[in-house]
C-alpha cells in the first residue's frame, strides 16, 4: 500500500531530491508526465540517476511534445494495479491532473501548489475553473505565503499545509570562505521578460565599478547583450554540478523577477553563503529578512534597488554574510519533508 501516488511534470533535480527524502519515511510511487523539457537552465536540470524511490515515466521525451490522452490511458493502467492512500498532483494546469482529481474521491486528493496570487488570474472564467479544481482537493501543500494568499482569494476551505519550498536543492560539499566584498553581483535564470533583466541591466549600466554576471539563456538573450555595458558578463548555461563555483566567485545574488512562484536559486545562493537581493514578487523572498541576510525590493523601483546596491559597503557586507550563515537550508528542508508525513 502506497502512502502517496505523486503525479508531477518532469524529474527536475530538486523534485527528485525531495522524493528521495520522502521515501525514507513514506511508501511513495512517483509518476512523471515526461522525462524531459525543452525549457531548462542546464542539461542536468532533469535527472533520474540518483532516484531512490519507485517511479514511472509516461512519455520518454520532452514534456511539450507529449500526448496527454495517451498519458491518461497509461495512468489508468498503472493505478488499476496498485493500492494507495493519497493522490498528490503537482498543479491544475494539465489534462492529466484534471482526469485524476475527478476520478478519485475528494478525501484522497492532494495538491502541491506552486502558483501564487501574483501571476494567477482570480477573476471571471479562470477563477471559476480554478475553484472547480480546488473543490475536488482535500489538502493543499502550499509553498509559501503568496501561495496561501491565492487560496484565500479563491475561497478555498480545505486543509492547507505550508512547505516553505518546492523541492530540495543539490547540496555539494563546500568549505565556506569569508570574502572581501568586491561588488560582484550574480543572476541565474532564464533570460526572459518576466525575469526583469532589462531593468537590472539598466541599473548596472550606470554602476561602472560594479560587476554583474548573468548565467542562463532564453528568448531575450540577444537583446539583453546588445544593451549591456562591459561591466555586465553573460556566461550562458552552466551545469548544476558546476554552479557552486559561480556562487564562490561572486558576492551577492540578485533576483529581480516581476513574478516568480518560488525561486529555488534563492535557496541555492543562501546555501552557498551569498546574501540575496530579491524582488518582493518572488515566493522565496520570505526566506530573506531585510538588512539581515539580504534585501527585498519592488521589482520596478529603480531608485530603491540602486540605493540598496550603493549602500552596501565592506562592513555591511560582512554583517549580511554572517547572518546568511545562521540560516540553515538543511533545517528548512527537514521541515518541508515533515509536512508530508
From TrEMBL:
UniProt keyword terms in alphabetical order: Transferase
Superkingdom: Bacteria
Transmembrane segments: none
InterPro entries: Glyco_trans_1 (IPR001296), Glycosyltransferase_grp1 (IPR050194)
Gene Ontology terms for molecular function: glycosyltransferase activity
A Pfam family reported for this protein in Swiss-Prot or TrEMBL: Glycos_transf_1
Positions of the Glycosyl transferase family domain: 182-302
Protein name listed in UniProt: Group 1 glycosyl transferase
